[in-house]
Specification:
Rossmann fold, two-stranded antiparallel ribbon, seven-stranded mixed sheet, 30% strand, 6 helices, alpha/beta, 237 residues, single chain
């Protein structure tokens, strides 16, 4: 698929997910119920959030990708499912960041719903910009907006930022900055997809002096019936 066709399809999915008649206020996932606010990415319409829970070891018997009892930072938290699940799984300090104010509020609601508001802080932030620069984390994780859009595209809504990344500008920043937020022995993780530009991603990592090491990969059917592969990378070097 061409870059042009891929990003336009993703934008259309973004628009449709905001106005679907079956968009719920509350939904079930990972044996729990979650609040969903208007304007926030809707996990019920995509298999990707469930896959993210699996690859992080937050469901079932998969190997955990976080340090129990440690600290966890999620970029692009959305409804907060990943961040809340990390807190429930034993992370003592969790920060959930999102560029969308609605997503920040949504994460706060779900932290309250599941009783982890004492150890989860939701932050309005464009990647790391809104964080305390002195904070360090055992795990930094981003399930990225892996669809490449033209560099000059400007988001029409905050919701579109969950789907596409113009010129991979956000990816470049994440690759450059995420390792600097780690504690000693910590892990900077990036969940990507074969629908993204893997060659460009590796080139950008090289330019930042880093290596992308595959920690996990899963193939699954998206809601549209399209088969995807998601890849969990660790940023090293």
């Amino acid at each position: 698929m061409t870059e042009h066709g891929s990003y336009l399809r993703s934008l259309e999915r973004s628009r449709q997910s905001l106005t679907r008649e079956d968009r719920p206020d509350v939904f079930a996932m990972a044996d729990r119920e979650w609040d969903l606010l208007d304007g926030v990415f809707a996990p019920p319409f995509s298999a990707t959030t469930g896959v993210a829970l699996d690859v992080l070891g937050l469901t079932g018997d998969d190997e955990p990708r976080y340090r129990s009892g440690g600290s966890f930072l999620e970029i692009g938290a959305g409804t907060g499912i990943i961040a809340v699940s990390a807190a429930l799984a034993g992370c003592a300090r969790v920060v959930a960041a999102d560029i969308s104010k609605a997503a920040v509020r949504n994460t706060e609601l779900n932290a309250q719903r599941h009783g982890v508001g004492d150890r989860l802080r939701a932050v309005h932030s464009d990647l790391f910009a809104g964080l305390d620069p002195a904070e360090r984390f055992d795990t930094v994780y981003w399930h990225s907006n892996f669809v490449l859009a033209p560099r000059d595209y400007r988001y029409e809504t905050e919701h579109e930022a969950a789907y596409i990344d113009p010129g991979y500008q956000a990816h470049r920043r994440y690759l450059a900055e995420a390792p600097g937020l780690l504690t000693e022995g910590g892990s900077a993780l990036l969940q990507f997809s074969d629908r993204g530009d893997l060659d460009l991603l590796h080139d950008m990592a090289d330019a930042c002096g880093h290596e992308l090491v595959v920690r996990d990969r899963r193939r699954f059917l998206e809601g549209s019936g399209e088969e995807l592969e998601h890849i969990l990378f660790e940023i090293r070097g």
